[in-house]
Amino acid sequence: MAKQKLPAVWMRAGTSKGLFIQREHLPKDLSQWAQPLIAAMGADPRQLNGVGGATSTTSKVAVVGISERDGIDVDYTFVQVSVGGGKVDVTGNCGNMASGVGPFALQQGLVKRPRKGEKTVDIRVFNTNTNRVIVETLQVDESGDFREDGDYAMPGLQGITGSEVKVAFVDPAGSMTDQLLPTGNGWDTLAVRGLVGDSTAQSMVKATMLDVANPFILVDASSLPSEMQEPARDDISFLAAVESIRCEGAVRMGLANSLSAAALVRGTPKIAFIWGNGEAKHADSSTDITVRSFSMGKPHPSLQLTGAVCISAGVCLPGTIPYSLARHGYVLGKQELPPTPSRTPSPVWAGEAGSTASDFRIDSAHTTYTVKIKHPAGDVYF
């Protein structure tokens, strides 16, 4: 079989790493992407014959091309390449990889260079996975090139600094389901199956199913069975139980028509366990929410950028589990959290207890808030 060349840039973006490829260098038919991308990342479980790092956070691809959409600079498609599974998943976005799209587009000449003397440039990106717009603000040097060096540090990148890339998600709600709350409820109960070797045994957990930037199942960790109270576990039975929650949530959110169909799509919806302020031994009294997220069936070493967006939105949505866990004494609209520069108004509650998704509305009189999230690699503010 003849070998083929695939021009690409291998780059770290946020806490992820992967290949950035121009759209024109791949087949026009997206269904034909799997073979070259799997070959490039590595098809074996250790990805020895490719550039993948044998983890979900290092087996990723961003496909970027000049956009024909009005007001958009480039289109971006995220591809999650399974590790040893021989599959690709294009059902959701990756916020960390998205942060590299702007720098890649500028370096590859896919967007106009900024005028001489400008220190920053805004690049408008259309994510084809979620049909949403992302605005990236990059720092540039005197010649208009992306300035890579800097003193900005982020959790999960010990000893690594660089220039800050600001990523703004425009109208992120309903990224895949077209609904902020796909089930119509602030929270629901989901079954946990397969614990302690008994595939028929099941218990129930509380979870908010929220679709902001990516669809997430946000599980109230205090409702987990005792066998799942240690979030650092990665044994087969524990991960199978986590997957059982995720699959039922996928069906409830309308992203799959059966549990077996949900099991075939590992990338979305995503799932995370969350604790409130000072709650249990895993939480931190100085934070609003403590999170343990999962990616492609494994514990995530830090937190997805889209996960931080989704959880932060949940903290501002009365009636949801993130809101309830993070309240610790304040009531939205009465005792405000420290304000941040306002971009879009925060959703506020318009109904009584027990109201559904239709009772959420946007109140322009309210400001936005800073939410501090603790994850395994550190803290993040949104």
Primary descriptors:
eight-stranded mixed beta sheet, Diaminopimelate Epimerase, Chain A, domain 1, 382 residues, alpha+beta, 18 strands
Outline of this structure?
By secondary structure, this protein is α+β, with helices and mostly antiparallel strands. It has two domains: 9-170, Diaminopimelate Epimerase, Chain A, domain 1, CATH 3.10.310.10; 188-381, Diaminopimelate Epimerase, Chain A, domain 1.
- Using the coordinates shown, work out and report the CATH topology of the largest domain: Diaminopimelate Epimerase, Chain A, domain 1
CATH evolutionary superfamily of the largest domain? Diaminopimelate Epimerase, Chain A, domain 1
User: What level of helicity do the residues show?
Assistant: 10-25%
Helix-strand topology string: EEHEEEHHEEEEEEHHEEEHHEEEE
* Count of the separate structural domains: 2
- Indicate the structural class: alpha+beta
**Biggest β-sheet strands, sense, barrel:** 8 strands, mixed
Counting DSSP E segments of at least 2 residues, the number of strands comes to 18
Rg over CA atoms, rounded to whole Å, is 21 Å
